């Protein structure tokens, strides 16, 4: 009898620990805390973009000068706000909102691409939105984050970068460029963004969001 009870408790704990929680209320009914948190996250990312653009990306360009398509392995850095915003707020438009705010901050602080960063922000945000919409805003795990990062990178590259930055590339180089961007989107934005959201939740800063509730439930189930 006790053995069956232990098995049932273990099964219940496993289900609780893996439960994905959607945003409360109507999907389009954003709360004030949703807007404020997404905006603060995006502003922080925008400042990080400026620092990356200024101090790190020139080194990336220098290191990959012999094979420029490899430079696209850095793309995932710019996709993080969309992935993290979508995973935290879990409402339609959250990924796009966070990415566009971050792009605006990057534009204000200065960058090497000018106003074009706004177009990039739009495409990058829409890529993540497309994946979350495909899952009907019901999946927010690492798998959804990885797919969001890949879709974001693909839309950015196919919709803009191939034509603006690499028109002279051979078809092979363009495919390699896309593959590098997709890999970066999966690893840096997808897995990295998912890890960042979980890390923020562990601080207690996201207790008002589903990701914070999931973490509390997983802890109580142990």
From TrEMBL:
The keyword Transmembrane applies. It holds the Pfam family ABC_cobalt. The keyword Transmembrane applies. The chain crosses the membrane at residues 28-50, 56-80, 92-109, 115-135, 142-163, 175-197. It comes from the Bacteria. Keywords: Membrane, Transmembrane, Transmembrane helix. This is ECF transporter S component. It comes from Lysinimonas soli.
